[in-house]
Amino acid sequence: MPGQFHQRNLASEETLKVISWNINSRAPGRAKRTSAALDHLKALFETYPHPSMVVMLQEVHKDSLPVILAKPWVQDNFVISELENAQEISNFMMISKHLRYRSWSRVALQSPTGKDALCVDIEVSPPGARTEWPVKQYLRVCTTQLELGQEAKDEELRLLQLAQISALLKAPVTGQVRIVGGIMGGDLDRFSTLNAAGEGGNDSTKLLDVWKRYPPPNIWYPFKRSVTGGRAEGDTWGHNTTVHFIEKHRPDRFLYTGCLDIVALNGNDDLDLSGKIGRLGIGQQIHLEGQDEDVYVSDHFGIAIGVQVRW
């Protein structure tokens, strides 16, 4: 029956679908847009191979939570991150009900605006592992929205926040718990100080950027950025807008560390692949009562990858 699941570990070399989307709480019609965003995700992934999935949502307003919780697709298939410590605008995660996990944690970041990182550990099984393994193995999954702003002090603060999350993803073995790898997704705004590998400027912030590690092949189109939605640049912001000549860039990213392989979610023509990252929500619009023109579901594109634990 729907909604009845036996929890299990993420299997060795099993593909975990990881989706991240900033759904823009600040634009009008947020509840209706949130509903449309979830409908879009359901249409993309409900019948997709590999059932295990994590959905990361940033900028979720508390007024939109009833919409999320009322969705039959969500109720039947997902466990939702803790709601008790959520702020008016927060980040949330949903993970497949059949996955075995440790408790959620919401870690405060160094931030004047209350930014945090939401984390969950998904238990994984090594190849040929016994039922009772002396040290439990976990994949740590985090989502966040880092500090916004274009001044140098804002980027310095984002680097400090990224260092905090990097430490979470690289946690040492403690007791009977080992973090074999970590993946974070979210809205990281912009960085001028990350190198070509997508890594921070020092060991405290060093994480691998999926898009920079696996960039797309050259795309040759006149005015290619507007034609392809910035596929060659990995853009996720600046296209879902009616404002002309706005700066386009890639605030939405996946960063990772540890024993992980990143795979593209091939086989879905509705996912716009930029390297190994699938982009979604491109051009998605809905009608709001009282609005002369349709509005975009979000000003951000969503992003999606497949993650496998490598042994």
Q: What is this entry, summarized?
A:
By secondary structure, this protein is an alpha+beta fold. Helices cover 17% and strands 30% of the residues.
Report on this model:
With 311 residues, the chain is α+β, with helices and mostly antiparallel strands. Helices cover 17% and strands 30% of the residues. The strands form three sheets. Strands 1, 2, 3, 4, 11, 12, 13 and 16 form an eight-stranded mixed sheet that branches. Strands 5-6-7-8-10-9 form a six-stranded mixed sheet. The protein is globular and about 60 Å long. The model has no long low-confidence stretch (mean pLDDT 87).
SSE order and pairing:
Layout: E1 16-22, H1 30-45, E2 53-61, H2 65-70, H3 72-77, E3 78-80, E4 89-96, E5 105-108, E6 116-124, E7 136-145, H4 152-169, E8 177-187, E9 208-209, H5 210-213, H6 224-227, E10 252-258, E11 260-263, E12 272-274, E13 277-280, E14 285-286, E15 295-296, E16 302-309
Parallel strand pairs: 1-2, 7-8
Antiparallel strand pairs: 1-16, 2-4, 3-4, 5-6, 6-7, 8-10, 9-10, 11-16, 12-13, 13-16, 14-15
What descriptive keywords fit this protein?
single chain, 311 residues, alpha+beta, 8-stranded mixed sheet, 6-stranded mixed sheet, 6 helices, globular
**Compute the gyration radius: what is it?**
19 Å
Mean pLDDT: 87
**Which structural class do you get from the secondary structure elements?**
alpha+beta
Distance between the termini: 34 Å
The helix/strand series, from N terminus to C terminus, equals EHEHHEEEEEHEEHHEEEEEEE
Unreliable segments (pLDDT under 50, ≥5 consecutive)? none
**Share of residues in strands:** 25-35%
Question: What helical percentage do the residues reach?
Answer: 10-25%
Number of strands: 16
User: What characterizes the major β-sheet?
Assistant: 8 strands, mixed
